[in-house]
Design goal:
Number of strands: 5
CATH topology: Rossmann fold
Order of helices and strands: EHHEHHEHHEE
Largest sheet: 5 strands, parallel
CATH superfamily: 5'-nuclease
Shape: globular
Radius of gyration: 14 Å
Number of domains: 1
CATH architecture: 3-Layer(aba) Sandwich
Strand order of the largest sheet: 3-2-1-4-5
């Protein structure tokens, strides 16, 4: 299975917080590809700089040590712009578009993802 983690799932995983057992098992399974989008790093950086998120240590190093990265392509950007406006958060829209384009399953607790034609694994 190829997974794309929503930003909150990345943070919870790194903090050792509770994630649903099915999602946790899928993330830990070495047979699965687990990706973190550049959009999530961007979101964490913005929220950290604005004081909305406190990140201990080197978040980039921590994420890179645990997961594979997913860059943002022109195709992802076009797909994000074309999505219906069910969800207005630009970071989540990018994750949705990346999941659609790359045929990934998004691991999230955000119910708005269900409004799109994307595979979701509940965190």
């Amino acid at each position: 299975m190829n997974l794309l983690l929503d930003t909150h799932v990345v943070l919870w995983w790194l903090a050792g917080s509770e994630i649903g057992s099915t999602a946790s098992t899928a993330i830990a399974d070495p047979e699965n590809v687990v990706l973190v989008s550049a959009a999530s790093i961007w979101e964490m950086s913005i929220k950290s700089a604005s004081g909305k998120l406190t990140v201990d240590g080197d978040i980039l190093g921590s994420v890179a040590a645990e997961f594979d990265s997913l860059d943002i392509s022109f195709e992802h950007a076009l797909a994000a712009g074309a999505l219906p406006l069910h969800h207005r958060d630009p970071f989540d829209r990018m994750l949705i578009s990346q999941a659609v384009v790359e045929e990934l399953t998004v691991v999230t607790r955000d119910p708005a993802f269900e409004l799109y034609d994307v595979d979701v694994l509940a965190a």
